[in-house]
Write a structure and sequence with these properties.
The chain has an eight-stranded parallel beta sheet. Strands 1-2 form a two-stranded antiparallel ribbon. The two termini are about 30 Å apart. It contains twelve helices and twelve strands. The chain has one domain: TIM Barrel (Alpha-Beta Barrel). By secondary structure, the protein is α/β, with parallel strands linked by helices.
């Protein structure tokens, strides 16, 4: 049975689903909002929160940063990207707050410098965003950190996924099925790809990163064998930001955690046998002469 340890917690088949609340950039550059989202994730029973880390001048070209873009934080694309980016001070505060809240945190670095930045905080794992799956240089830098890697597979072919797995190796790796639409429609989610990934990489735990509205597809993913579920969260859909519409509000996150834990309990062990609670019902409902072997 394949499993990966994240801060000592086993993630894989046969273990409780590891639930990640993706804060991403939904904090809108506010450490106060970030703390509220951390508090929400911890209070609902999530296992971890996740952020995104970029070195703005590396990830984006000067031309991209200079593009005119109206938003609450300035007038250019660069104004927005820089406003959304947390630095050492903010992540130090996040580190302390998560420890106080009893929840893990990690992030997806979008460039090598950001991977080095996160290493200083001794994060328990690294997430590779779907957009970075074909960035071999970044994959190798992340692997060099010696921590588990969670690799999202959105907007990728199976050949591209296979190449990324070759680059990082199958040890200490978790794959996440994902569809990179924000939000994604139910008909586009292709949840059966979870089984496809499990069959293709039998030694690698497989989870699900969802961008749909609602919670039912993510719960279905667990039924299909997802050992990890990652969902974006927000305080309010109406907040500024491109990821807000594909996120869960507080009540949605509570329902997600509740329903995942409920369906895990309902899954049982797969052995078809007579439950002791069925015995009196069997005695009552079976015809006389057909109840001899009730035990």
């Amino acid at each position: 049975m394949s499993e990966v340890l994240i801060a000592g917690r086993p993630v894989g088949d046969g273990h409780p689903c590891f639930i990640v609340a993706e804060i991403g950039i939904n904090h809108n550059g506010s450490i106060s909002i970030a703390k509220k989202l951390i508090e929400l994730a911890a209070s609902t029973g999530c296992d971890a929160v996740k952020f995104q880390k970029r070195t703005v001048d590396v990830v984006y070209t000067p031309a991209e940063l200079a593009l005119t873009r109206e938003h609450p934080f300035g007038t250019t694309n660069g104004d927005l990207k820089r406003h959304l980016e947390f630095g050492v001070r903010e992540y130090a505060a996040i580190n302390v707050y998560c420890k106080e809240s009893g929840i893990l945190w990690f992030a997806s670095p979008w460039d090598e410098e950001s991977a080095d930045f996160l290493e200083a905080f001794e994060v328990p794992c690294y997430k590779v965003a779907s957009a970075s799956l074909t960035d071999d240089s970044l994959l190798r830098r992340i692997r060099s950190k010696g921590q588990p890697i969670i690799l999202s597979t959105g907007m990728s072919t199976m050949a591209e996924v296979g190449h990324a797995v070759e680059v990082v190796g199958q040890e200490n790796l978790i794959l996440l099925h994902a569809v990179s639409m924000y939000p994604a429609e139910d008909a586009d989610l292709n949840l059966l790809a979870i089984r496809t990934l499990k069959e293709k990489f039998p030694g690698v735990p497989v989870g699900y990163s969802g961008h749909e509205r609602g919670v039912h597809p993510s719960v279905a993913a667990v039924v299909l064998g997802a050992c990890m579920v990652e969902r974006h969260i927000t305080l309010d859909f109406a907040m500024f930001g491109s990821d807000q519409a594909a996120s869960l509000q507080p009540e949605g996150l509570r329902r997600l955690v509740r329903d995942i834990r409920s369906v895990e309990s309902a899954m049982g062990n797969g052995v078809k046998e007579l439950h002791h609670k069925e015995i009196p019902i069997k005695r009552k409902l079976r015809r006389v002469g057909q109840t001899e072997n009730v035990l």
